[in-house]
Design a protein that fits this description.
The structure holds two protein chains of two kinds. Chain A is mainly alpha-helical. In chain A, 62% of the residues lie in helices and 5% in strands. Chain A has twelve helices and six strands. In chain A, helix 8 runs antiparallel to helix 10, helix 10 runs parallel beside helix 11 and helix 11 packs antiparallel against helix 12. The radius of gyration of chain A is 29 Å and the shape is elongated. Chain B is an alpha+beta fold. Chain B has 15 helices and 22 strands. In chain B, the strands form five sheets. In chain B, strands 1, 8, 9, 10, 11, 12, 13, 14, 15, 16, 17 and 18 form a twelve-stranded mixed beta sheet that branches. A four-stranded antiparallel beta sheet of chain B has the order 4-5-7-6, covered by helices on one side. A two-stranded antiparallel sheet of chain B has the order 2-3. The N terminus of chain B is likely disordered. The chains are: A mainly alpha, B alpha+beta. Chains A and B meet through strand 3 and strand 4 of A and helix 7, helix 9, strand 14, helix 11 and strand 16 of B.
Chain lengths: 360, 559
């Protein structure tokens, strides 16, 4: 008599087997999760990211500092005035000139850092206009960061757009965009920025329906964005040229995806990590460029402060009031260092084999 | 601003002078003047000569007498080329006295003041041994026109220069108002109208005599034969120059010292810190640049004996546009005057190197009478602004982007903000600054500016800078559009007077007072002081500072 086999494969057993298989399956991890996992183990990068946020937060608090601690604005000069330190009146900028007997006394040396001895006034000293250096440092930081981050956003956006168009369409589009990159690249970046910044800072920009007044922060922001586009755009274009030949692009195209859909849904996500790293590094680069331009008078225009203009203002007093140049210099170093270290960490996290570098 | 500021500043003046002379002419009438006699001689420095003077110098604009216009070129070359007249080499105000140089005496001037007659000294020679001829003077003036020299506007009163057919326009033929006779060594200058400052104009570098036939192009690097005690041996732009003794001088100009150094080697360094450091390190004997504020305390304490501080004829002022709101309102102008604390600017911006002033004319002029009409008072200034009804108005403030003028205009913009205006700061490169604010289209409302004298005469101040009859659309030197009809008329009347008597001086002083105090047209705040810094080998007992020639290097001596 025949008996019923226990190994007969029925629909019920298939379901049971499938359920059992699901329970033991390895959980898939997204590339972003893996990157985050790598990044969070990089304590140095995170520490510098924290430092950057601290600097940004401090600069954002500039109006509070101005109103509640220093009680003076970033552009308010106090030449000829005094303040109270430990119950004594102290000149903000030392008096000089000729005495009654005609004897000359050198003057014009601004008061040094008071820390908290003057009730929050001149914590980091005064400049030769009698302006509070700490207030200007925070407002200057706001301007430097605004120009640095703003220009990085604009630069990265256009670089990405041009790279997508050139890399995806190729042919004439690629040729035109590549020559545009070459044209900008043909000039030394800082010289081009100085030339544009100087020209625009005199009369502003009033063409094509765009009106930007001289002295506007938009001028250094746009100038820096413009001159750095090829430095981001070229590597991205190369990456897209390579991705464009991959099977998944062919698959998308064969399924009828439009060009924009391929660019935005297929190509863009694949260069996102590179863009992110570039963005971080280029903020640091742009802050340095802004400082250089402002130092040379082609960036943020006086009386507005930026770390670059503060160094420029301080250089003529480097022997008698070195803090005027050193303090904003330290801020630039810390900000750029924090962004660069974090950027390197981010690059390592997103793609340890990547060779993204900001070089020019 | 540096001493160089005189260059770009006055180019505009001259364009203006020329244009006005062509278009309008400059008054008329007659006035008598006197003929002078030979000036005092001061050429003996026996026993103090020495082989070499090493100087750090600013970059001269040119080393060609018909072209140069900076103090850097003027100060070094006043011992090289000479005019018919020159200044006495004496310290202090005596140095402003004109004496005959190539001319054997002061000119004979006709009763109507329109005719001047000179006679050249006998046996004058250029450094190349060739004789100096009367016709060389005419050639030199014509050469200036042919080269579009920045100084040609000064000669606009000479007959045959102005007008459509004048030499300034045609540059052909000759200037009919200059008649020379080589045989008799006579030079006659005819003027279209009397010119109160004509003798000073003839002492300017643009009227210095060069040999006929000298090319009418910049000869800076091909030294032109000279008539003074020195000759230019070589000049390398932006690097340096060398002066050596003129072998044919032979005290041919007894009113001019023969000079103590046998040779002068100049190194051009435009960075004041580097220039100062070069003297400190003993590589040079003199620093032309102003000692930087940052090094001034050190210079004063460590090198006090080698440092001299002087205040020459200059005025630093804020020009406010008298024809545009808010400063077309006298209360607003007075408020702006009161908002400025001269001592604060002098201390903070110029390191103490300056003397506060409310006068437009600098001290030292016989016409100077100290004005004490207002004082720094922010509260009163705010009140005046409120009363004027101009509070809250935007003011376009212009300055240069180089310190210390940048800091000065930043200060003024800050003070305007404190008295309830909305200043908008425009900082321009020095090279385009004066052209920009001298253009009415710019609509500048408040400006940094300064003025260094071309020659010691009030006309160089009031007529050039504050005469409302001379306002132009472009190249306007009256940048504040100061236009007080009664004062304009007084300036025109005074212009015809060649002799500066005490009564005339009083009238000039009233012009100053009316413009600064009564009408509050301008905000003068400082006569800037400058430095002469010397190496330890220089014998400071020989230091001579003249109001016109600055440090008289020819009279220097070594320990």
């Amino acid at each position: 008599m025949a008996t019923e086999s226990t190994t007969d494969f029925t629909l019920d057993t298939a379901a049971a087997l499938a359920a059992a298989e699901d329970e033991g399956a390895i959980e898939g991890k997204s590339p972003w999760y893996l990157a985050w996992r790598r990044l969070r183990r990089n304590y140095v990068a995170l520490a510098f990211l924290l430092l950057f946020f601290v600097i940004v937060a401090a600069c954002l608090c500039a109006p509070l500092y101005k109103d509640h601690i220093a009680h003076t604005g970033p552009n308010t000069g106090h030449l000829g005035e005094t303040f109270t330190r430990d119950g004594k009146q102290v000149a903000v900028v030392s008096k000089g000139g000729f005495g009654q007997n005609g004897e000359f006394h050198a003057g014009g040396i601004p008061v040094g850092p008071q820390f908290w001895h003057a009730g929050g006034k001149y914590v980091l000293g005064a400049d030769n206009q009698g302006r509070d250096v700490a207030v200007r440092l925070l407002y200057g930081g706001l301007n430097s960061l605004a120009v640095g981050i703003g220009s990085a956003i604009i630069c990265t956006f256009f670089a990405m757009l041009f790279a997508l168009l050139a890399g995806y369409y190729g042919g004439k589009t690629d040729w035109i965009i590549s020559r545009f990159f070459d044209l900008i690249w043909a000039f030394p970046v800082l010289l081009l920025a100085i030339a544009l910044g100087t020209a625009l800072s005199i009369n502003g920009f009033h063409h094509f329906g765009i009106n930007i007044k001289s002295g506007s922060l938009w001028i250094p922001t746009l100038v820096i964005s413009y001159v750095l586009i090829p430095y981001v755009g070229r590597p991205l274009r190369g990456q897209i040229l390579s991705l464009r030949e991959k099977e998944f692009i062919e698959a998308a195209t064969s399924q009828g995806a439009s060009s924009w859909r391929v660019m935005l849904s297929e190509l863009l996500p694949n260069i996102a990590s590179t863009v992110l790293v570039f963005f971080t590094l280029i903020i640091a680069n742009n802050i340095l460029t802004e400082a250089g331009l402002s130092f040379l008078g082609a960036g943020v225009q006086p009386p507005s402060a930026s770390w670059g203009t503060m160094i420029a203002d301080g250089q003529s007093r480097i022997a008698t009031a070195p803090w005027l140049a050193i303090i904003p210099g330290i801020m630039i170093v810390l900000t750029v260092l924090s962004l660069n270290v974090f950027g390197d960490g981010l690059r390592d996290a997103l793609d340890p084999r990547a060779k993204v570098r900001m070089e020019h | 601003m540096t001493r160089r500021s005189r260059l770009t500043r006055v180019v505009g003046v001259l364009a203006l002078l020329t244009a006005l002379a062509f278009l309008a002419g400059c008054g008329g009438g007659g006035n008598k003047s006197s003929s002078g006699s030979s000036g005092s001689g001061s050429n003996s420095n026996s026993g103090k000569t020495y082989p070499l003077l090493r100087v750090v110098w600013d970059a001269p604009d040119y080393m060609d007498p018909q072209l140069y216009y900076t103090v850097a070129a003027y100060q070094i070359n006043n011992y090289v080329w000479s005019g018919l007249l020159g200044y006495k080499h004496e310290a202090g105000p005596a140095g402003a006295q004109l004496v005959p140089y190539l001319a054997e005496s002061m000119p004979k001037i006709s009763a109507d003041g329109k005719d001047l007659k000179f006679t050249l000294r006998q046996n004058l020679k250029y450094s190349n041994g060739k004789p100096v001829k009367a016709s060389d003077f005419k050639y030199s003036i014509e050469r200036a026109f042919k080269m579009d020299s920045p100084g040609v506007g000064f000669f606009s009163a000479i007959s045959g220069v102005s007008g459509n057919n004048g030499f300034a326009t045609t540059k052909k033929g000759h200037i009919s108002g200059i008649i020379t006779n080589d045989a008799n060594r006579t030079i006659e200058i005819k003027l279209d109208h009397p010119e109160g400052d004509i003798l000073y104009i003839l002492a300017l570098e643009f009227a210095h005599v060069v040999p006929s036939g000298t090319p009418a192009s910049d000869q800076s690097t091909h030294p032109i034969p000279s008539t003074g005690p020195y000759m230019l041996q070589s000049y390398q732009p932006n690097r340096g120059f060398t002066l050596v003794r003129n072998p044919n001088f032979n005290n041919q100009i007894p009113t001019e010292p023969s000079g103590n150094p046998d040779k002068v080697v100049g190194t051009i360094i435009t960075d004041p810190v580097a220039a100062y450091q070069r003297v400190v390190s003993g590589k040079s004997d003199y620093d032309f640049q102003i000692v930087p504020n940052d090094r001034l305390p050190e210079a004063q304490s460590k090198y006090k004996d080698q440092l001299r501080i002087y205040t020459n004829a200059n005025t630093y002022y804020y020009a406010i546009n008298n024809k545009m709101p808010p400063f077309n309102n006298i209360q607003a102008r007075k408020a702006a005057q009161m908002a400025v604390d001269p001592q604060a600017i002098i201390s903070g911006v110029y390191g103490g190197l300056g003397r506060p002033t409310e006068n437009f004319l600098p001290p030292g002029y016989p016409q100077y009478k100290k004005i004490n009409a207002w004082h720094f008072d922010l509260a009163k200034a705010k009140q005046l602004v409120q009363q004027s009804g101009t509070a809250g108005q935007t003011v376009d403030v212009y300055g240069t982007n180089e310190d210390p003028s940048k800091s000065s205009i930043e200060y003024f913009a800050g003070q305007l903000a404190k008295i309830c205006y909305k200043p908008k700061l425009h900082l321009l490169a020095h090279s385009v600054y004066f052209q920009t604010i001298g253009n009415q289209a710019t609509k500048a409302q408040a400006m940094f500016t300064d003025w260094y004298q071309d020659y010691p005469h009030p006309l160089d101040w009031f007529d050039t800078l504050l005469n409302g009859d001379r306002i132009t659309q472009v190249h306007n030197n009256n940048v504040g559009n100061v236009d007080v009809p009664s004062v304009n008329k007084e300036i025109s009347d005074l212009k015809k007077i060649t002799e500066l008597t005490p009564a005339v001086n009083d009238r000039w002083a009233k012009v100053d007072s009316d413009l600064m105090a009564k009408y509050a047209t301008t905000i003068p705040y400082m006569n800037r002081s400058q430095t002469d810094f010397f190496g330890p080998k220089v014998d400071m007992t020989c230091y001579t500072f003249s109001v016109v020639l600055y440090w008289d290097w020819g009279l220097s001596c070594m320990k």
